[in-house]
Design brief:
Length: 584
């Protein structure tokens, strides 16, 4: 574990145990850039290979394991001690930069286990080897850079040596402090032994005093356990009664809100009934007016029909007279022809007497012709006037027929409105009756809840009085005669608290055990005195809670999706008509 805290660097001694676990072989002094480099290494017995071990190329002077230039995962060896080989591709390797690099083997915990000799990447122009000596031909600039790097490395070495000396001094100081602390610890241990002996003596005295106190406290514990059990039972009953009281108060508030909503609905229904009755009265008046106007129109139609019949008779008479006039005209034509013949005869005959007679006859005939012409003109004028009268009467007849049709349509619309108003009045009256029923139910529930609240309040006051009496009752306290007090163990109170309440006898408590079966039945009998009768299905529910009874009544009702009006199951037709009226 101490090896993981060492930060490996390139300046670390290569002969240490960590760096000798992996041995790199066949490392050249320089590699030509742009070509792949193969790395050869062997694992010693002191290292266990892992799939997450890797080999990296580091620049000389690296500080941490993350300062690698590139790396490859090391393959798992087939056999121990076998030489391994990995190949670094050329495009991952550094270019010719004059820097020195080295291979490092890093395990899965980030610890360097082996490092190679330095090498660098450069193109060698001339190379001469003689007795393992290499002559490298370089430029003056490279030499200067190497010297500068050498000076920098020497400075780093001096700084590190100073740091090492400082660390050694710190270690000496820490050893001196450690020795002083050991001496102090030995003294403290001796002091602790003396204190423990004193504590043992004090414990013996305390145990004797505690035994005496435990005997005296046993009587108190019995009394306190009994009183605590009674107090807990009374508190539980108080809590339950308070919960029921809160529930009843909330239900009371809900009932009051529902009563207010019902009152508003009833007021709205009454206003709607008044409005509908007024509309109904107006419609009845309109109906009466339309009936009178229809009767007048019918009488006028009858008169017009009589007049048209008279006019038709007059027209028939005029047509007969015209026919007679046509006959007279024919006779006149014949007489004219006779006159012409007579004139011809007179021209032939020179008799004066005959001429005079003929002149008299001609004059008479001319007078008759004039009278016939006058009658014909009068008859034509009478015909024209009668025809005009006929046209005017026909126009009036048509107008009166259109008026009659309009009055009939109005009368039908008024009858439809009247029927709708009657339906609305029936719906509103039913809704008012239903609201009155629901209001009666809510009043009954309100009365029951108020009675229940008064009963609960009376019980709560009784319980509070009992608790106040219990708290006011004097409790004898014991004081120890000698020796310090010890804390009473909690296990005794826990054992007393675990005693079931039903096991206590009724005679042990002042006001009996509230959790005994007899007292529970009596409380149930007190709480549920009246039975609930459903107003719709007439089913009796003797032991049903108030909200459950309300849910049962609401299950019989159907609500309108538009105005939230409620209908019973028997009012299915009214419910459908009401919903369709919203669609219209």
């Amino acid at each position: 574990m101490e090896e993981s805290f060492i930060v490996p660097t390139s300046i670390t001694d290569m002969t240490s145990a960590d760096f000798s676990k992996v041995l790199f072989t066949g490392v050249q002094r320089s590699y030509s850039p742009g070509t792949p480099v193969s790395c050869f290494y062997t694992l010693t017995n002191g290292i266990i290979p892992n799939k997450k071990d890797w080999i990296g190329i580091y620049k000389v002077g690296w500080k941490t394991v993350r300062d690698y230039y590139t790396f490859l995962w090391s393959p798992m060896p087939d056999t121990d001690g076998q030489e391994q080989q990995i190949l670094f591709q050329a495009y991952y390797l550094p270019k010719e930069d004059g820097e020195f690099y080295q291979f490092c083997y890093v395990d899965n915990q980030g610890v360097v286990r082996g490092a190679s000799t330095p090498f660098r990447f450069q193109n060698i122009s001339e190379q001469e080897t003689c007795d393992d000596d290499i002559l490298v031909v370089t430029t003056q600039d490279k030499v200067e850079t190497f010297e500068k790097e050498k000076e920098a490395l020497e400075k780093e070495k001096e700084e590190l040596s100073c740091q090492v000396t400082e660390l050694k001094e710190c270690c000496k100081e820490l050893e001196e402090k450690k020795h002083a602390a050991q001496v102090e610890n030995s003294q403290l241990i001796e002091d602790l032994k003396h204190v423990r002996q004193e504590l043992d003596e004090a414990k013996q005295t305390l145990s004797s005093a505690a035994a005496e106190l435990n005997k005296k406290v046993a009587a108190l514990e019995e009394k306190t356990t009994k009183q605590s059990q009674e107090n807990e039972s009374l508190r539980k009953t108080l809590g339950e009664h308070q919960l029921t009281l809160n529930n009843t108060l909330t239900e009371k508030k809900k009932l009051e809100e529902d009563m207010e909503c019902l009152k508003t609905k009833i007021a709205v229904g009454v206003t709607e009934i008044k409005r509908l009755t007024e509309e109904n009265q107006k419609l009845e008046e309109d109906k009466k007016k339309s009936n009178s106007s229809c009767k007048q129109a019918k009488s006028e139609l009858d008169l017009l029909q009589a007049e048209t019949e008279l006019l038709k008779r007059d027209i028939q008479k005029l047509q007969s007279e015209i026919h007679n006039n046509q006959k007279n005209e024919n006779e006149l034509k014949q007489t004219k022809e006779q006159v012409q013949r007579l004139q011809e005869d007179l021209s032939k005959a020179d008799r004066t007497a005959q001429l005079q007679e003929l002149h008299a006859k001609i004059e008479k005939l001319q007078q008759l012709l004039k009278e016939a012409d006058m009658r014909e003109s009068q008859l034509k004028s009478d015909l024209r006037t009668e025809r005009d009268k006929l046209k005017s009467t026909e126009m009036e007849y048509r107008n009166k027929e259109t008026l009659l049709a309009n009055w009939k349509n109005k009368f039908q619309k008024l009858e439809l409105q009247h029927s709708k108003c009657e339906l609305k009045i029936a719906e509103v009256t039913e809704a008012c009756q239903h609201a009155a029923r629901v209001a009666d139910l809510r009043e009954m529930e309100k009365k029951e809840s108020e009675d229940f609240i008064t009963r609960l309040q009376a019980k709560i006051t009784d319980l509070e009085k009992q608790l106040s009496r219990r708290h006011q009752s004097p409790v004898t306290s014991l004081t120890p005669s000698a020796g310090p007090l010890t804390s009473v163990p909690h296990s005794q109170f826990d054992a007393a608290a675990q005693v079931p309440v039903s096991s206590l006898a009724a005679s042990d408590l002042l006001f009996n055990n509230p959790y005994s079966p007899v007292s529970g039945a009596a409380a149930a009998a007190d709480l549920v005195e009246e039975t609930s009768l459903c107003p719709i299905c007439a089913v009796n529910f003797p032991h049903l809670a108030e909200f459950e009874f309300h849910q049962h009544v609401q299950s019989h009702m159907r609500d309108c999706p538009y105005c939230n009006r409620e209908f019973t199951e028997d009012e299915e037709d009214l419910f459908l008509q009401h919903v369709y009226s919203h669609d219209q």
